[in-house]
Fold this protein.
Amino acid sequence: MQEIKIRVEGMHCGMCESHVNDVVRNVKGVKKVKSSHSKGQTVVIAEDDVDIQAIAGAISAQGYGVGGTESKRYEKHGLWRK
């Protein structure tokens, strides 16, 4: 799994966040998504083989600007972490 942070320009409210979340969820391999208009970013948890360009394309197709992306290994932490 990987965590992908995407800079998104043009989100101004919670409804914008919902639009972005909805289209990103439809990309194959995406497991979880959360957008923040105040931070100007979308954070995606996805399978290792997810197409990051497909995610960016889905966002830009909605009229939002897509800036840089960064990706790192995602490790789920449970309640009983040592």
Remarks:
- The chain has one domain: 2-73.
- The first helix runs from residue 14 to 25.
- The chain is about 25% helix and 35% strand.
- The domain at 2-73 is CATH 3.30.70.100 (Alpha-Beta Plaits).
